[in-house]
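ok, trying the design again with the full structure, not the truncated one.
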């Protein structure tokens, strides 16, 4: 549990392992500072595009230079997602601009049906982080107002939340959900409970996680989809990619942030099964594939951009040897295709899904591994990733997704997580170590840093 102790020590678990260790000293040199500044300027370039062409909307379509909203009423996805990154980068003018817009225009008093998971990780997480960094109580009031309107989603027979809820009426829909969307609410709802003293949010989110865990297979694996009304699995494919990924992430991080031993038990039981049945040794390296949750039989040899979060999680959980080996595989996706595809077949290194959506997970893992090991190779990996993004996805108005990494054909969309995650992790990888102490925060899955201030 070597590196797990690094985070628990300052985040504050009451039962930290009795081992003393510290982060290795990180390099602060002129080359790193120059790269950090390049990332900072890339952020400003993307923000200027949003500010000019999509102000007060959710996202920017940077090629057509038009706004994009998730729902009938904008929820300011990009400003909320970007705010804490601006503070970390010292972009004070941009942060003041974003704060003013959020506090003047953001409201949840709408007859709009929203996706609970996405609104939680982006907006609720962003508002909580903004409150902790800025200390303006208006951010906390907004966070509480949003959480209160999301609570009806948990009113299912099992306690696992429906996927969608109407902010105005509380009506719910889409009962077939997945472990990620059910389990990736704990940090945000739990932090809100700890900050406000209202235990309801914590209890609702925790029950949802426990109900998924309770329905794991005898092998210890979860499936890809589950009906929250009946508790019956609808999809039995197990993996660490989309629909499941951040379920595992929050088992570990909820233990780290709250010191709740129930999450430690669930994490340790789950990661053992993941390593036993999903890890896959090939001549191309260590990967994590797909298996049937009941039999453990290998179903597919697919891995991609979303799965690339796993080296960071393994490292945070103390398994540095496996994390470093998997990170080499992640790096291979980039060096083979210049920009990582959404999904590859690692058995023959062929492309399955060719798009690149400006995803952050590879840079996230590079950041964690550099911070936890001090090895320059992870900065080198991250620099190559950032340079590929800057070269192939930049437009006059920002950065855009790629329809195909092989042809570099562009797709007209700049997701808000570019600001919240991709450029934040790239910046922190090269910024001075004192910019943010990884031991003092737990990042939610949208890279909003949460602190144990209670």
């Amino acid at each position: 549990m070597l590196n797990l102790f690094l985070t628990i020590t300052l985040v504050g678990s009451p039962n930290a392992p009795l081992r003393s260790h510290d982060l290795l000293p990180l390099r602060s040199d002129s080359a790193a500072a120059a790269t950090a500044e390049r990332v900072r300027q890339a952020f400003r370039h993307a923000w200027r595009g949003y500010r000019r062409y999509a102000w007060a909307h959710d996202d920017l379509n940077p090629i057509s230079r038009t706004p994009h909203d998730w729902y009938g009423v904008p929820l300011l996805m990009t400003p909320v997602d970007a705010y804490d990154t601006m503070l970390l980068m010292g972009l004070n003018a941009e942060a003041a601009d974003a704060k003013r817009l959020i506090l003047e225009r953001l409201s949840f008093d709408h007859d709009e049906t929203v996706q609970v998971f996405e609104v939680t990780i982006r907006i609720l997480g962003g508002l909580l982080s903004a409150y902790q960094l800025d200390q303006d109580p208006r951010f906390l009031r907004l966070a509480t107002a949003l959480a209160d309107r999301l609570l009806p989603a948990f009113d299912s027979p099992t306690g696992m939340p429906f996927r969608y809820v109407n902010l105005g009426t509380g009506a719910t829909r889409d009962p077939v959900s997945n472990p990620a969307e059910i389990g990736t609410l704990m940090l945000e709802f739990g932090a809100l409970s700890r900050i406000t003293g209202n235990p309801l949010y914590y209890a609702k989110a925790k029950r949802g996680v426990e109900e998924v865990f309770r329905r794991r297979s005898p092998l210890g694996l979860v499936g890809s989809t589950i009906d929250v009304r009946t508790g019956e699995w609808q999809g039995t494919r197990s993996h660490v990619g989309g629909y499941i990924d951040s379920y595992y992430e929050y088992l570990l991080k909820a233990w780290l942030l709250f010191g709740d031993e129930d999450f430690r038990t669930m994490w340790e039981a789950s990661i053992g099964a993941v390593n036993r049945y999903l890890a896959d040794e090939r001549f191309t390296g260590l990967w994590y594939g797909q298996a049937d949750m009941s039999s453990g039989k290998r179903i597919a040899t697919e891995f991609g951009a979303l799965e690339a979060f796993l080296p960071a999680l393994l490292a945070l959980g103390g398994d540095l040897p496996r994390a470093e080996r998997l990170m080499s595989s992640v790096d291979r996706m980039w060096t083979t295709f210049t920009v990582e595809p959404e999904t590859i077949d690692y058995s023959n290194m062929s492309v399955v899904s060719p798009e690149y959506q400006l995803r952050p997970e590879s840079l996230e893992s590079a950041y964690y591994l550099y911070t936890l090991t001090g090895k320059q190779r992870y900065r080198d990996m991250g620099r190559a990733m950032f340079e590929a993004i800057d070269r192939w996805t930049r437009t006059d108005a920002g950065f855009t997704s790629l329809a195909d990494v092989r042809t570099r054909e562009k797709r007209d969309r700049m997701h808000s997580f570019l600001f919240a995650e991709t450029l934040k992790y790239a910046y922190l990888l090269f910024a001075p170590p004192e910019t943010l102490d990884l031991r003092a925060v737990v990042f939610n899955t949208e890279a909003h840093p949460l602190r144990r201030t209670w």
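Keeping the full-length input from now on. The mean pLDDT is 94.
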